[in-house]
Amino acid sequence: MLFDRNHLTPILELNASSTAEFCDGYFDATTLSEHIEREDPFSRKELCKYLGIGESTLTGWLKEDRIPLMAKQAMILPLAHRVLKGEVTRLKKESENAQILKSGDQYQIVVFKPDESGEAIGEVIADNIADLRTARIFVAGVQALNLLGECDDLALEYTIEHFSDGEYPDHLENLESLRDDIRMCRAYAVNFDHWRDWKKVLADVEYLKTKEGKKQAMEKDGPLLKKLRDAIESGEISSEGNKS
To answer: Does 173 reside within a domain?
Structure first.
């Protein structure tokens, strides 16, 4: 990104009289062309629609390096909004992270959550931790689980969709396995009952692969087969026996 968190401080220091100068100083023909080339945040067509101008008008601005100040201000708006939104999101996540507090000669992990009046109330989630290093590992583990969730939701799902055309079946299988392992890991930490139920279902799937399991599955209305059919129909596991 051309306009990123490095611009946060200048944005926060802006006032009514300095905003025009900032916008005018940031955008020139070269900078605007780079933004358009990277579609940051608009493509050429999208930018013209946003500004309410024709593409020939934009071409003239770039050729003559004469971009109207109001256009510069309008283009800074979504860029500044993105930076500020990112900072607010970061601060919100940071406030929700577990904190390390010293309690005598030991340490405890505390999560602060607002009550009905908005006051931050601390909840001890781990106590009597012997040393600071162990406490940091604990906090880092919680944060890592959250990051794994984001990786699962964004990067992995996008990549799995990319490989779903059948061209790289081995890569797809490995990615789906990684996604399932991440989900099981997070469920173990934040929803143990769900994790335990899934472990049992997956164990049943493995049992079906055995001779005895196949025999039981062929029985009319067998409880194991019914359980697995219900899970498959609900989309919770695929017909191959993998968690979706």
So the answer is: no
Within a domain: residue 146? no
Domain's final residue, options 94, 117, 148: 94
Amino acid (one-letter) located at 171? H
Q: What is the pTM of this model?
A: 0.52
pLDDT in tens, 93-132: 777 778 899 999 999 999 887 777 877 788 888 899 999 9
Residue type, 93: K
* Largest pairwise CA distance in the chain: 80
Of 116, 231, 155, give the one whose Cα is nearest residue 240: 231
How far, in Å, CA of 244 to CA of 238, rounded? 6
Count of domains observed in the chain:
3
Same domain? For 210 and 231 the reply is yes
Extract the tokens encoding 179: 């996604």
Residue 110 pairs with which residues in a beta bridge?
99, 124
234: tokens are: 């609900």
Tokens 């100040």 belong to residue? 69
**Where does residue 79 rank: exposed (0-12), middle (13-18), buried (19+ CB within 10 A)?**
buried
E strands, 55-119, in order? 99-103, 106-114
Owning domain of residue 241? 193-244
Same domain, 118 and 89: no
Go through 190-221 and write b for each residue having 16 or more CB atoms within 10 A of its CB, e for each that does not: eeeeebeebeebbebbeebeeeebeeebeeee
